[in-house]
Amino acid sequence: MTDFRDRIDDRPAPEIPRTTAARTAKLVSLPLGIAGRAVGGWGKRLVGQSADEVNATLSAKAAEQLFEVLGTLKGGAMKFGQTLSVFEAAVPDEMAAPYRAALTKLQAAAPPMSTRQAQRVLAQQLGRSWRQRFREFDDTPTAAASIGQVHRAVWHDGRDVAVKVQYPGADEAVRSDLRQLQRFSRLFQALVPGTEVKPLLAELAARMDEELDYRGEADSQRAFASAFDGDEQVFVPKVVASAPKVLVTEWMTGTPLARIISDGDAATRNEVGRLLAEFHYSSPARAKLLHSDPHPGNFLLLGDGRLGVVDFGAVARLPHGIPRQLGEMTRLALEGRSNELMKLLCEAGFIRSGNDLRPEDVLAYLAPFTEPLATERFHFTRSWMQRQAMRVGDARGQDFRTGRSLNLPPEYLLIHRVTSGSTGILCQLDAEIPARAIVRRWQPGFAD
C-alpha cells in the first residue's frame, strides 16, 4: 500500500530551466538526439550489427532521453509525456519495453522543487502565517508531477490532507513547452503509432489556463466529490481549501495503478478496470462532468476496494451528459448498419458535406473499435490495441485514408481523448470487464 502516490526518491533535483530559450534548447535536443542516433545506428549496421540489436539500443537511448527531458522540464513537456504514457500499450512489443519503462515514470513522478521554493509559494497563496493553518506539514513532497507537487500535512482541525503546490513559473513554462512540442509532433507521432499527436497537443494547449488555476480545479473536484459522496465504488477527496496556486484536499491511502499494472493479479486488474470504466461512463450522468486527464497516476485502489480519483484540473463540462448521438453511432456500427451510420455521422458533423466517403469504408473503419461491446465481457490487451493502432496508422491501407477524411467536432474532442486514454489503461491492466453492461447502463442512445 502507498500513501496517496508512490513517494519520490530523495535524489537532489536537477536545475529546472526557466527561460524560454533554455527550455527550447532542451526540447530541440529530442529530435536532434534521436536523429543523431539513427545515423549512428545506420553506421553500426554497415559494420555488421543486426538491425534488431541496433533498434533495441536506439529505442532504449531514445526512451532514456525522452524521460530525462520531459521529466526535468515539468510544465507542458511533462504534461504531454504523462498524456502520451497511456498510449504505450499501442506500441509494438519489440520496441515498447524502453518506452514503457520511461513513460510509466512520467505517470507519477518528477524531480521536486526545493523546500524554499515551495514555502515561498505557500506564503504567497495562503499568507505569511500559512503554517498556522496546519498542525503538521511535511516539507518533503510525497509526489511531484507536471505543474505541481504534493505534500502531506495535518489541517488545523486534525484532518489528514494533501497540499498541492504549483511550481513557480509553471504558467509560462507550460505555454512555451506546448508551442515548441507542436513543432515536433511528427517525431512523437512515430513513437506512438495510431495516436493523433498534433491535435492532442493543440487540445492540451487550449485547456492549460484551466489547469493552471487551482480554484477552477477545486470547483470541479467539489462537484465530483458531491456527485460520488458515499459511493461504494468511487472515492473523490473533498476540497479543504484552495487558492490560485495551492489546493488542499482530503488525504487518501491506496495502491497506485502503475503498481497494479506491473504486479497485480488478474482478479485485481479486472476489478480496477471495471471500476475505471464505471467512473468514466457514469460521471457525465452523475456529475455532468468528465474527468479528462486519464493516466494511471491519477487513480488509486483504496483498501476498502474503492477507486480513488485525483487531479481534476482538466474536465469536460457536459450539462446534458454524454451526447445521445454517440451512443446511437456506437450501436449502428456494432450492428453493421452502414447507411444509417453514415447519415448520423453527417448530421453530427463527423463527415463534412461533399465528402466522397463510402458507407462501407466508414463502417469498416469504426466497427473494430466497438468489439469490446460485442460480447458481455471483453479482454482488453496490448495486442488488441496494437492491432487497432497498426490498422488505422498504416498509410497504405483504406482505414488510414478513411480516418484522415473523418472530422472530430470540438464538442467530442475531450470525450474522444478520455475514451482513448481509458482504453489504453484497460489494455495496460490486461483487464477483462463487462464493458457492454456498463455502456448499456450509462451511455444514452446505445440500448434503444
Automatic annotation (TrEMBL):
Domain ABC1 atypical kinase-like, by residue range, is 105-342
**Annotated keywords:** ATP-binding, Nucleotide-binding, Transferase
CDD domains from the UniProt entry: ABC1_ADCK3
Q: Which GO terms describe its molecular function?
A: ATP binding; transferase activity
Task: Establish whether keyword Nucleotide-binding is in the entry.
Answer: yes
Q: SUPFAM superfamilies attached here? A: Protein kinase-like (PK-like) (SSF56112)
Residues passing through the membrane, by range: none
Enumerate the InterPro entries for this protein: ABC1_dom, ADCK3_dom, Atypical_kinase_ADCK, Kinase-like_dom_sf
The record ties this protein, via Pfam families, to:
ABC1
Which family is this protein grouped under? Answer: Belongs to the protein kinase superfamily. ADCK protein kinase family.
* Official protein name in the record: ABC transporter ATP-binding protein
Which organism is the protein's source? Amycolatopsis taiwanensis
